[in-house]
Design brief:
The chain is of the alpha/beta class. Strand 6 (50-53), helix 2 and strand 7 (89-94) form a beta-alpha-beta unit. The protein has helices spanning 33-45, 65-82, 99-112, 129-142, 153-156, 162-169, 184-195, 210-216, 226-242, 270-290, 295-305, 326-333; strands spanning 2-3, 12-13, 16-19, 25-27, 30-31, 50-53, 89-94, 116-119, 147-149, 174-179, 201-204, 220-223. Helix content is 44%, strand content 13%. It has one domain (13-333): TIM Barrel. The protein has 12 helices and 12 strands.
Length: 335
């Protein structure tokens, strides 16, 4: 879905597959500019319609505000350097422990080059659905860039209901939401709300139910596993949209634990191709969870093992995968 924004601003296309990128670090407190640019370029080459930086997978809430700003600027520079007319979308995640802090973060990220900002409610004070809606409306009212709601009730304790989503969707600068819940009924209710509001999109962040979410009518996806399986996710989007198994030239990008048969066309019909691609994502998600480390830590370990990033440092207090557990990463991703 292409969403119209403020008069004179370019529309924002929220369709397709966007990886929620990890944040490469040179050490636990220092961004790796080269690694960040490499991940953005790799994502675009593999078919991403955009990228998200400083989300939960990118450890956004653990970074300093200035680091989130720098990270966004580095991603914008990498996209600009591509020199392509149809530039991929750049989303950035805003974090803050208070409403003034969120206002300031959204402003910084917009100035740094974000096309739109994903807003995470403060995690330490559970909010009612109406309070969450009030927060998003207040942020949007002062924002110079479009915003998206990012409810993660399992982490923040602050859920959104269809009625609350309807309230925020009515604001011209709230252009969508990311829903990371596996709850099919909740997702269907959000999609129903979006269908009745021009310029509001629903994206899923739950890889194990991606096929079901696309069938239910979500506009796109923002997933963590796209760091290591983006081509598979792009192929799933295409298969779900066309009803025919997509042709993929050659094997899927080889990576640690990647099964070659999960990225190649096997001649099945659309439903069979969708099911096959979805099964691979479901296995991968289970494998990541079995490692016994945070999702960012496991993904960084996998990317380092694959030679994509140099270091696997995480932002404290998140711990990196220790060397004696790297075999667990390999094993988990081979499931």
């Amino acid at each position: 879905m292409t969403v119209a924004t403020a008069p004179g601003a370019a529309p924002v296309d929220l369709a397709g597959a966007l990886p929620a990128l990890v944040t490469p670090l040179n050490d636990p407190t220092t961004l790796d500019p080269g690694g960040i640019g490499d991940l953005v370029r790799r994502a675009v080459a593999d078919g991403a319609s955009g990228v998200l930086v400083a989300g939960t997978t990118g450890e956004g809430s653990l970074l300093e505000p200035e680091q989130r700003e720098e990270l966004t600027a580095l991603a914008r520079a990498a996209i600009t350097d591509l020199g392509i007319d149809d530039a991929p979308l750049l989303l950035a995640g805003a974090s803050g422990s208070s409403l003034p802090a969120l206002h300031a973060d959204v402003t910084r990220l917009g100035v740094a080059g974000a096309d739109a900002v994903l807003v995470l409610p403060p995690p330490l004070q559970p909010l009612t659905p109406d309070e969450v809606a009030d927060l998003h409306l207040a942020v949007a009212e002062r924002a110079a860039v479009p915003t998206l709601a990012y409810p993660i009730p399992q982490l923040t304790g602050s859920p959104l209901t269809p009625d609350a989503v309807r309230r925020i969707a009515a604001h011209e600068r709230v252009i969508g939401m990311k829903d990371s819940s596996p709850d099919a009924d909740r997702r269907a209710a959000f999609v129903d709300v979006a269908a009745g509001v021009d310029g509001f999109a629903v994206l899923t962040g739950h890889a194990p139910t991606l096929a079901a979410a696309l069938a239910a009518g979500v506009d796109g996806s923002i997933t963590a596993v796209a760091n290591v399986r983006l081509r598979q996710i792009v192929a799933l989007h295409a298969a779900a949209a066309s009803g025919d198994g997509p042709q993929v030239d050659g094997p899927h990008r080889g990576g640690v634990g990647e099964r070659a048969d999960e990225g190649t066309q096997v001649g099945t019909g659309g439903d069979g191709e969708v099911a096959r691609l979805q099964a691979g994502l479901t296995r991968l998600t289970a494998g990541i969870g079995a490692v016994g480390a945070s999702v960012p830590a496991v993904l960084k370990a996998a990317l380092q093992l694959d030679g994509i990033i140099r270091e696997r440092w995480c932002t404290p207090p998140l711990a990196s995968v220790p060397g004696n557990r790297l075999d667990h990463v390999r094993t988990a991703l081979l499931r």
